[in-house]
Amino acid sequence: MLQLRVLRTLESLVSREIFIGPALIDSGAAVNLIDGALVEELGIPTFLCVSSLRITAIDSQPIGEGYLRHQTELLDFQVGLFHHEQLAFYVTSSLVNPVILGFPWLRRHDPQISWRSGELVRWSPTCLKGCLRDPVPRPCRTSRVDRATPAAHGHLPHQYTDFMEVFSEERVACLPSHQVWDCAIDLLPNTSLPKGRIYPLSLLESKAMEEYIKTALAAGHIRPSTSPAAAGFFFVGKRDGGLRPCIDYRGLNAITVRYPYPLSLVPAALEQLRGSRVFTKLDLRSAYNLMRIREGDEWKTVFHTTSGHYEYCVMPFGLTNAQAVFQALINGVFQDLLGKGVIAYIDDILVYSTSMEEHVRMVREVLCRLQQHHLYVKLEKCEFHRPTVTFLGYVISRHGVEMDVVKVQAVTEWPAPTSVRELQHFLGFTNFYRRFIRNYSSVAGPLTSILRGKPKKLTWTDQARTAFQQLKNCFTTAPILRHPDPDLPFMVEVDASSSGLGAVLS
Q1: What residue segments make up the domains of the chain, in order of their start?
Q2: pTM for the full model?
Q3: Distance of alpha carbon 371 from alpha carbon 282, whole angstroms
Q4: DSSP code at position 99
Q5: Is the CB of residue 244 less than 8 Å from the CB of residue 236?
Q6: pLDDT score for 2
Q7: What is the 3-state secondary structure (H, E, C) of 328-380?
Q8: Residue 402: what are its φ and ψ, rounded to 5°?
């Protein structure tokens, strides 16, 4: 697609209308051409050529009146999302395509074209330095299907059908505008730029990579780059058998100044749920891609593949400050609602209420704010008006908070670790639920003691084996934790031994 924008000139003020349409690339055309009807429609200024040029088709038959007598002023036009330049066109008539880019344009830019697919694949090194610029955020036009899909209405309660835009998949594919909360990447002083390696990809992964690059370029989420930095690109498997693209940002993260914004303490937030009987869970769609990289920092996110060198215009996964930056945005959006009907942890949102009437009002307020801040939700992962929901590994109801049965099953089926790393994974997993297990430190003590001194080899004793099985059994008998009632008295339980001390409020 060719985007053609008329510029303001010194001689006259002309319309800034934009023409978007197909352009024919023709190596047999000796000049660049534009149809006279389009020139007249857009009010493009033209001038009379000093001498006319004869113009014929491949069969030597004249095109239009057979001569080119007029030329446009310099026009600012854009090919795709990134390629910008100024160019004057000869004006003719009777063109099948309104714009023809001829041999002079091809010689100047020397693009790589796939004649099999009919697509422009890659720009020349000259274009990388001079013609490729930031993409302009493209406006999204929401179709009727997108706004009122019958299947979507079937899942969405009728109280929220006027917020269908919030559940749009199309709008997520658009490039967002720069905002005050853009992701900044400040580098530590006197550090070297990371230069990651290119990861080998299988045939299936190579095809997935090409599709990802094509889609991300079309959305404006990435752009070609000449940055001296580099990070590797690879895939990890999804649960559904698909492939998830990943960038190895370990080198960049090592030299990035940390953003010290705290993440929400979910267990503490869950203590606000007393009396709640109705719950709604929302899951943001492509959350990180809804935030821009701070202007001027894009080159730091560069990654390289076998098909080229690219940098992100939106915040990718893997950056050390990504979670904190997005949490700061979410907290800003829901600042006055947090702890008063809303819990928000990165891209997961829980709305809780004591009555249905109050709940509908609160959910509408949340959806309204998401719409105002151009944040979008995965309708297929939402749960509305439920007496019980699973949220961030916890099962929540009016009775209290309990462990997710899926996680409990994972622990009970966990095989005995055979390495230090496997033991660390097990303890990290169980530690998440330690508040459900009385005397967790004592039960897990024989296991945690193995890791003291950072051993390289696992020493698996009978005592460790017994503790491992005992800890697994604790998960099958864990209680439901009731929502605390601040109107009732609390008891502080403390304990201390030669190995440690602790306290709990019960």
Answers
A1: 2-130, 402-505
A2: 0.67
A3: 13
A4: E
A5: yes
A6: 47
A7: HHHHHHCCCCECCCEEEECCEEEEEECCHHHHHHHHHHHHHHHHHCCCCECHH
A8: -135, 170
Bridging pattern class, strands 388-391 and 308-312: unpaired
Beta strands in 42-191 (DSSP E): 46-56, 62-72, 75-79, 83-87, 90-92, 99-101, 112-114, 119-122
The pLDDT value given to residue 132 = 66
| Helices 462-476 and 405-412, packing angle to 10 deg | 160
* Cα separation values, 341 from 141, 157, 382, 502, Å: 33, 19, 17, 31
Q: Cα–Cα distance between 21 and 251 in angstroms, integer?
A: 42
In whole angstroms, give the CA distance from residue 3 to residue 85: 11
The pLDDT, as a whole number, for residue 118 is: 67
Cα separation, 182 vs 294, whole angstroms: 5
Confidence at residue 492, expressed as pLDDT on a 0 to 100 scale: 86
C-alpha 328, offset from chain centre: 16
H or E element in which residue 39 lies: helix 36-42
E-assigned strand segments in 177-277: 222-224, 232-237, 243-248
**Helix or strand holding residue 310 (H, E):** strand 308-312
From the number of C-beta atoms within 10 Å of its C-beta (0-12, 13-18, 19+), residue 48 rates as exposed
**pLDDT by residue (tens digit) across 411-431?**
889 999 999 899 999 999 998
Q: How far is CA 112 from CA 4, 44, 93, 115, 447, in A?
A: 22, 30, 29, 9, 59
**What residue type is assigned to position 278 of the chain?**
V
Identical fold for domains 2-130 and 402-505, yes or no, is no
Q: What is the mean pLDDT of each run of 10 residues along the chain (506 residues)?
A: 42 45 81 87 83 77 79 78 78 82 86 72 70 56 42 70 84 80 92 85 90 88 89 86 89 92 80 88 89 92 90 92 91 90 92 93 93 89 92 89 88 90 91 86 88 85 91 85 77 76 74
Dihedral sign computed on CA atoms, order 337, 338, 339, 344: positive
Sheet containing strand 90-92, strands side by side: 23-25, 99-101, 33-35, 90-92, 62-72, 46-56
Q: Which fold has domain 402-505?
A: Alpha-Beta Plaits (3.30.70)
Closest CA to 281 of 184, 378, 177: 378
For 2-130, CATH gives 2.40.70.10
Which burial class, exposed, middle or buried, applies to 286 when counting CB atoms under 10 A from its CB (0-12, 13-18, 19+)?
middle
Question: Which is it for the CA torsion 459, 465, 469, 474, positive or negative?
Answer: negative
Give the model's pLDDT for residue 261: 84
Instruction: Give the tokens for residue 367.
Output: 């959806």
